[in-house]
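Limitations

Structures in this collection are predictions, not experimental determinations, and the ligand pose is part of the prediction. Treat each record accordingly. The example that follows, with calcium ion as the small molecule, is included so readers can see exactly what is and is not provided: the inputs are given verbatim, and the output is the predicted complex.
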Amino acid sequence: MTHKILVIEDEKQLVRALRGYLEQAGFDVIVAYDGRTGYFMARQEKPDLIILDLMLPEMDGLDVCRALRQDSDPTVAEVPIIMLTARVEETDRVLGLELGADDYVTKPFSPRELVARVRAMLRRLKPLREGKAQPTTLLRSGDLVLDPVRHEVRIGEQIVDLTPTEYDILYLLMSHPGRPFSRSEILDRVQGIAFEGYERSVDVHIKNLRRKLGDDPRSPRYIQTVYGVGYKFKEG
Ligand code: CA
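Predicted complex:
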């Protein structure tokens, strides 16, 4: 099956280069040159993954990301998003992740690295999509339940909406209660690839998870910070 990648980026030269690399890697590539068109294409074409630039005409990348994550169609709301950011400010990347992007790449980047990230992300989603080799044991901690068959997280009766990355991190931590994971280990286990300098993105995913789970980092019920190491799921 050929994966369809939607590139939303207004720099024509960069789009040309990206298209070349992605097509060479065997992907179908569709392109939108502004945010609004990109948003509508995402809803209509249902791509397998979106590469989304932050600075875009019509509707910026953050707005596109926010709108997609709120879509009523789960295939749209859960599409993996890799954000491209030219800005050096940490806050922009952090904001992108907070709005539900799964990963980000800072410009200038090597197209090879981006293709590697696209591949890694699709690889980790594949077994989920195909329903293969999936664990079937419910993970529980108090009223928090992770159901790997339905790919669903609930607190009591309430379903918690998580991005694929947040779900995978929670799954990793919950399936090893009490075992601390370093940031780079989490990235490696969850994204299938860990690039230097991106460890902080784990903190943002954890922050999102805690917010969505209603977990207070000062007295966590679920996810504990292990100082100097990373994170672990609370035992017992
Ligand atoms: Ca741009």
